Write a sequence for this structure.
């Protein structure tokens, strides 16, 4: 009796992946996977076309302005939020999640705002809130004047924690 | 069988994705590429591909790609799009993107890196033949810093293709490399076991199971190596040694339950039933949906029975039967719940977007009973791939639905713009036409002046630069001469006229250079005004064009996009239904399988409980008989003996090394 139990119980010590259910074949899985890949391709194509349409319709290049946020200093600074004012009007407020902060730390750039402005000079005001490595709250503000030409305007807002450089917020007109 | 199992386990140890990892090391020179990376780092693959696709299309569409800032990152972007597609489980397209790099005229390290990625892609999709074919094409200089990654993948591919000797050599060389010790030793052990080189395999696994480090991956490989080695030794009948390795597995970890179960069986095999109760008693208290815990429900009373505690054993079998009954009810409820579609509803809940462990956490939620028994199934590659596809389809469905409503809004915007601009534009155009003709006239005048002045530099013509007064004076004099013609004029008058003419001519001639310089200055000043005029003109033309473009030429595109979106949505819904059905079938099958297992346990427990009750009753009756016989022989007032006291619960401690 005990041998029978032993035999039955020992089955559970097999460490293979659970047996595939008979009703779902590998061909079925593969077939539907290929169809999913195909529809992803189609939807990505619609997305690209839609992006271009939106740019043309909502943000034509002669008035388009995009603001990007990037981070310097990696682990020393925990960015919590950013506020952006363009020509005296608040245009973006963003609170960062852990994943978004990690993406910025890894070298990604966040497009925080896209809008329309006339050609000519514009004033950008940026405020950021974060914590330094020792947990101290860091509040920084900076201003930047940029000239919007005929083409799309691209401005990078580069944020850095305390001690990285003299200016916590730097700008780059692309 | 064991070799195959070990190989499967080894194949699960896929090297970590290097998704666009190089990006952070180089300063970004294209913000849109940076944006694609920002999405990719968050695993938002759809957005990353969509962004990068648009950038690459633009890059290849311009006349001078070198002026596009993406050209600084073009190789990296080509790789990244393949990586993103791989991350988005678009293996076919990723393969094509990477192949395009391989076929291109690129340096050997770039080409080799592309081949490595292609091979990894095949390996991850379990296409081991093509993975081998690809990795064998790597020749010449390797990309800096990737030598070990390539070697590790090569070893895995050899292992998957049954070239155990070649794989073993590679893993042997990698064992000394930082960051690879545990993984290389583990895979080397698998290779050696597959070659029936048992003793060397045990030694390699032992090294993998004792590798130092507190990183999650190191702890996992250590536990896995000890579990696999312990199980292997147990199969070979080396129970004592097996127990030692199984007890090395951490008590808190994904392999803990199976290790505790195995450790108990190692003790049973050595007939140390008392010691078997130690790991099994720990298991006994854990989540009862785990197969190892369910097995321990029967294992503990089995050990008590072997120790001769039949009463205790029977009671524990009774308790196990109660728990099994409860679990069977739960399984029935789970199957019913899945059939009603609640499983799929739970999987696509909003929490899944923010919590990557959401599917695992589902087991803890009382409102999702259908997931309690699916942890093992959810850990399988096929189920994971199907689940991810289902979640991706749900994401696509939401996007497509949102776009569908956007089109209506776009049409509204276009209509509003049309209503605003159309009445205004005719009068604006009429005014513009008038201004345009004036501007053109002035421009022609300027051109004529410019030509004249340039000619005068070569052939001086002072009279061209006469002032208005001088010209009027000259005309007056000419008129006067005309009037005097044929009339008697005194000499003094004639002399005065000649002197006036001479004075004017003198001024014109002597001031010529100064006047020419002044004329050029005026022309330069005019050019400034003309430049400003042209800027305004161009600005007006652009604005006018933008006004028209803001509402014209979209109807057809939006209509076409609307149809495409509608068709895609229909396909997505169909695929979701099919994919969801497959997931449900797999889940129900898994639950039915677990149910059957529990029913087997139930039968075993019933028999064992009855057997132990009989034994306990028999023992008691024998004891009673002995007592009565003793009483008959020597009547006295001895107190009746109770049943043998229950064996004390084994302490949780004593699992040294776990």
């Amino acid at each position: 009796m005990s041998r029978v139990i032993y035999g039955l119980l020992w089955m559970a010590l097999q460490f293979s992946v659970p047996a595939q259910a008979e009703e779902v074949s590998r061909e079925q899985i593969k077939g539907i996977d290929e169809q999913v890949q195909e529809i992803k391709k189609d939807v990505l194509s619609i997305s690209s076309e839609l992006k271009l349409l939106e740019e043309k319709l909502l943000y034509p290049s002669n008035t388009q302005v995009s603001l990007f946020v990037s981070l310097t200093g990696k682990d020393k600074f925990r960015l919590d939020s950013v506020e952006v004012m363009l020509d005296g009007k608040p245009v973006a407020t963003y609170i960062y999640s852990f994943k978004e902060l990690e993406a910025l730390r890894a070298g990604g750039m966040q497009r925080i705002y896209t809008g329309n402005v006339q050609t000519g000079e514009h004033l950008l005001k940026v405020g950021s809130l974060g914590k330094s490595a020792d947990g101290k709250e860091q509040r920084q503000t900076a201003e930047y004047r940029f000239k919007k030409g005929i083409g799309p305007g691209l401005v990078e807002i580069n944020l850095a924690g305390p001690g990285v450089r003299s200016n916590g917020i730097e700008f780059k007109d692309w | 069988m064991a070799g195959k199992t070990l190989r499967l386990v080894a194949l699960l140890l896929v090297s970590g994705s290097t998704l666009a990892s190089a990006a952070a090391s180089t300063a970004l020179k294209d913000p849109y590429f940076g944006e694609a990376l920002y999405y990719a780092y968050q695993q938002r693959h759809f957005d990353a591909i969509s962004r990068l696709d648009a950038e690459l299309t633009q890059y290849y569409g311009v006349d001078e790609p070198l002026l596009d800032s993406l050209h600084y990152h073009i190789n990296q972007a080509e790789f990244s799009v393949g990586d993103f597609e791989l991350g988005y489980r678009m293996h076919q397209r990723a393969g094509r993107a990477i192949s395009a790099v391989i076929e291109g005229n690129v340096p050997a390290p770039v080409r080799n890196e592309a081949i490595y990625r292609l091979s990894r892609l095949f390996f991850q999709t379990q296409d081991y033949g093509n993975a081998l074919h690809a990795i064998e094409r790597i020749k010449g200089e390797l990309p800096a810093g990737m030598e070990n990654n390539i070697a590790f993948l090569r070893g895995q591919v050899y292992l998957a293709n049954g070239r155990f000797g070649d794989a073993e050599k590679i893993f042997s060389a990698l064992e000394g490399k930082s960051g690879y010790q545990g993984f290389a030793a583990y895979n080397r052990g698998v290779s050696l076991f597959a070659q029936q080189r048992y003793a060397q395999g045990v030694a390699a696994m032992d090294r993998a199971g004792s590798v130092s480090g507190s990183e999650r991956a190191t702890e996992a490989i250590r536990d896995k190596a000890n579990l696999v080695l312990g199980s292997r030794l147990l199969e070979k009948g080396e129970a004592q040694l097996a127990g030692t390795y199984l007890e090395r597995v951490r008590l808190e970890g994904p392999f803990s339950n199976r290790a505790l179960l195995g450790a108990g069986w190692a003790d049973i095999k050595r007939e140390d039933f008392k010691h078997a109760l130690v790991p099994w008693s720990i298991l006994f208290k854990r989540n009862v949906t785990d197969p190892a815990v369910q097995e321990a429900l029967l294992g503990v009373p089995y050990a008590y029975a072997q120790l001769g505690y039949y009463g205790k054993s029977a009671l524990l079998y009774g308790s196990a039967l109660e728990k099994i009954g409860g679990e069977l009810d739960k399984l029935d409820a789970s199957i019913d719940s899945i059939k009603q579609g609640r499983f799929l509803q739970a999987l696509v809940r909003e929490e899944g977007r923010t919590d990557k462990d959401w599917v695992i956490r589902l087991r803890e939620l009382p409102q999702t009973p259908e997931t309690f028994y699916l942890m093992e199934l959810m850990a399988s590659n096929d189920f994971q791939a199907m689940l991810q596809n289902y979640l991706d389809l749900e994401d696509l469905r939401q996007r497509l639905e949102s776009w569908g409503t956007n089109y209506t809004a776009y049409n509204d915007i276009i209509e509003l713009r049309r209503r605003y601009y159309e009445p205004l534009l005719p009068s604006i155009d009429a005014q513009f036409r008038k201004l345009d003709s004036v501007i053109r006239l002035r421009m022609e005048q300027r051109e004529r002046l410019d030509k004249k002045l340039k000619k005068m530099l070569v052939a001086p013509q002072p009279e061209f630069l006469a002032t208005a007064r001088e010209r009027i004076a000259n005309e007056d004099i000419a008129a006067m001469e005309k009037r005097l013609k044929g009339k008697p004029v005194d000499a003094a008058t004639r002399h005065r006229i000649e002197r006036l003419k001479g004075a004017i001519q003198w001024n014109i001639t002597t001031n010529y250079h100064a006047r020419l310089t002044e004329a050029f200055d005026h022309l330069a000043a005019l050019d400034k005004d003309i430049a400003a005029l042209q800027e305004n003109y161009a600005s007006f033309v652009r604005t006018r064009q933008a006004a028209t473009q803001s509402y014209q030429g979209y109807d057809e595109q939006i209509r076409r996009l609307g149809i495409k979106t509608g068709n895609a949505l229909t396909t997505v819904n169909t695929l979701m239904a099919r994919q969801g059905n497959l997931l449900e079938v797999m889940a129900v099958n898994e639950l039915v399988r677990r149910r059957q297992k529990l029913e087997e346990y139930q039968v075993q427990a019933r028999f064992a409980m009855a057997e132990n009750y009989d034994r306990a009753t028999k023992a008691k009756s024998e004891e009673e008989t002995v007592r009565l016989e003793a009483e008959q022989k020597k009547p006295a007032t001895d107190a009746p003996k109770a049943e043998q006291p229950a064996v004390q619960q084994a302490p949780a401690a004593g699992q040294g090394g776990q």
Remarks:
- Residues 424-550 of chain B form one domain.
- Residues 555-633 of chain B form the longest helix (79 residues).
- Confidence is low (pLDDT under 50) at residues 1-26, 636-658 of chain B.
